[in-house]
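step=predict obj=Glycosyltransferase family 2 protein n=273
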Amino acid sequence: MSSVLQPAAAEQYPPTAGKYRPVSSHLAIAPPVSVVIPAMNEAENLPYVFKSLPDWIHEVVLVDGNSTDNTVQVARELWPEVKVVEQRGKGKGDALITGFQACTGDIIVMVDADGSADGGEILSYVSALVSGADFAKGSRFANGGGTDDMTFIRKLGNWALCTAVNRKFGARYTDLCYGYNAFWRHCLDKIDLDCTGFEVETLMNIRVVKAGLKVQEIPSHEYLRIHGTSNLRAVRDGLRVLKVILQERSNRRALRRRSPQSPMLDAMRGEVS
């Protein structure tokens, strides 16, 4: 599924080394990495986002949510090879699903367009994946992570929702509603995303656990949005996240009633490494 080659090995086996791309002084990888950036009227923030992206990335997929500013033009100026995809629906979940479908890389990374994420952290996510994880989940509350952009109410809500997911699905998450994640492309076949809003991150986190995928949390620091205002609404979107949790729990109970072997399946799907 993954390939890692240390620099010394690359010198020893030159025919193989050409297939690998150095991503740090100690690590080279073979899998191509796609970065998906959903954006709507983020022209002012894109210079900060693209500046932090590593140059070894295979492709950048910008999903334009019908921007009325020059978001697309700025993206093409900053990253000439950028793949621009027009979003036909609405919502962050819809934008991400559209972007995932356009990716050609084996590894997919989700990055927000507001400048709150450090693209340099992608190395940590990719390292976790090529080392054996299926899903590398960013966490602002894991040891080494942090956030500059969360009110007390949002922190409380995130904690409550995260606790609910951990208890109901057997996860061990420290953060739930965070959009900086990376995963192997094959994961999409197992989580079957079908939501349109900000609750998409929660749905992904629940379904990777239910699918029995190996998850590794990556400490991440969330910075303040640089320009503009967020479309996130704490109460509205918090209720949508809660609805997803309840629906996924109900679906799990229905599966248990249909299958006599479901307790064993549930135990297997509840493992998070």
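step=describe
The first helix runs from residue 7 to 12.
step=end
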